[in-house]
Every structure is written in C-alpha cells, then in structure tokens.
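Appendix B. Chain record.
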Amino acid sequence: MGRVAELAGVSVRTLHHYDEIGLVRPSARTAAGYRAYSAGDVERLREVLAYRRLGFGLREVAELVGDPSTDAVAHLRRLRGLLLERRDRADAMVAAIDRELETRAKGLTVPPEEQLQMLGARLYDAIGGAYPATRRTEPRIAAQIWDALGDARTVLNVGAGTGSYEPADRDVTAVEPSAVMRGQRPAGSARCVAAAAESLPFEDHSFDVAMAVSTVHHWGDPIAGLCEMRRVARRVVVLTFDTDEPGWQDRFWLTRDYLPEFAAVLAEFPSLAGMADAIGARVEPVPIPWDCADGLFEAYWRRPGAYLQDHVRRAMSVWTRVGPQAEQRSVRSLSDDLDSGRWAERNSDLADLDAADLGLRLLIA
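Structure tokens predicted for this chain:
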C-alpha cells in the first residue's frame, strides 16, 4: 500500500479511507498480511484519483467507477473529454485576461461587472451564453439535414449544444458534455445526457439515426466519435467541414485575407475522406445562405460588418482558439478595409450571390 501511495501521490491514510468506504479495496494480501493491489485495483484507483482531481465528490466518483456498463477505455475517453473541456475553459480565461491586460495598458478602466465576467465563475457562462443570441437554426440548412434523416423516428443528437437543428417531429435524445450548454437548452427540449461522443452510453443500434451538427471539430477524437455514432445508430448524419481541397482556407475571404491562423486551428482535424470512410458515408455540399440565421463562423460571408461585433465573434469558438492578438489584428484590418472600400472592391463578386459553398459538408451514412 505504501508503494502504491507513493506512486499515486496520495497518503496511505487516503488509501485506507478508500478501502473502508469500498471505493478501492485491495483484492490481495502479501505473505506478511499486508494489503496488495492487483493490476485491476490500480486501474480503478487511477480512475478514482482522476475523477477526484477533476473535482468530483466521492459519491459521484463511486457511481462513475461503479457503472457496470463502462469499461476502462470508456473511462479514459470520458476523462479525456472532461480534460478537454477544462482546457477550453482555461484557454477562454487566458484570452479574457489578455483582453483585460491590453485594455489596462491603454490606460482604460475595466468596469467591475466586466472584471467578474472575465475572471469569475461567470466566464464560461458568458462565452457559452453568446450561443443562444446568434446560433439559431437556419431553416435552409435544417431542411437539408432533416431530409437526410429520412423516415427515422428515434434520433440521437451528439454534441447537441443548446439544441439547434433538433427535429421537433422525432423522438430525440441529446448528448452534450458541457454543463454550460446543457443548462442553456430551452424548456421542453429533448432530454439531454451528459456524455462525450467518443463514449456514448447506449447499446448497439439503439437509434434509427445519430446526427451531429457543427460539433465534430470540438471532439478529442473525431473518428472514434463517428464510429460510436455508427455503433449506436442504424444511420448517421453529420454536418462538418472539408479541409481536403487544396487551398481550402482561401475559399473564405476572412481566412484568406485576415485570419491565416485559422488553418492551424484545423491542422489536426481528420480529412473529410477519412471521416466519410470511417462510417461509409456519402458527401453532400451544404451552401450557406447570404442571410444565414445560424451565426456559425462563415455565416456572414456577405455581411462583413458582423465580424466587427464582439457578441457575434464570442459565439464562434475559432476566435478563442486563435487568441486575442490574431483576433484584434484581423478585426482591425477588416474594419480599415471596410472603411476604405477595399473589402467591397476585393469581394465584388459576392454581391449578387444568394448562397456560397464555403466548405460545409453533410456526411450521410
């Protein structure tokens, strides 16, 4: 027990307590009568300590590690998802601190309420809170998604967020790992399960179809998540992004002329062909209407002034990922070009377009 305590970085007293409450009980004894941990015991201890260090209470940990339907791999995937969410929160806090430092460097005063939003418990709520204001269901994109659902009656919405694009005429179950997003789902929406795409807590073929809308790029392991969707549903429908085409970042003027850092954000994102092959999917392009109601990153391709608005950018995860310096530089450059007329001159071909193909793709399997 002493050796295990040393390796795990906890006290022997802690291990004794876990033994007494039945959380981690050593399954063997040495010849001298001392407690000994098997490989399975150590694995369980690792899970317990990992959940504890993520802030879970002992009762919650006992329920998590005691779940007979969850194996070691599922626990690792769940832990990975929780850690990624924590990383995203930390990234958001760093970005908020950077913004405040730059504001103070200019000799400007930061109001108390903004300080609380930047550094307090409301930080992630404030960032996630931008979604309901601008991330709404776009009817024309929804029609294409819902048409792909076919005659499915039971639908699993993976990475469901606040519930956009969930069909009201189907039996929907939502999956969303973020408590912030779950808390913003409207009253009367589908029941929502706290889980990660890579480890869906459902039996094989539990649903007619599993759908995922503009969420795959947030997953720790997109291919694993897609394969899980394929496992639990007879069909799969996924709205994602194509990075296969050479020069794909030049399709959109914002990434081409103002935010080259966007390419690095998706540097490790799986290829569209790889994702399609993983689930045996065909691919459909999804045009973005010029007046798109869903404020996704490319939505304002014909309304460039929207990108100058902070509340619009806050509902786009890209800006947190590229950091405040890249964000402020690109916004400043865009503002200058809009004022000078350079943007309009450079993008005059967009004025008469009703919709644009900017890389959104629907995978249908």
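Further analysis of this model is presented in Appendix C.
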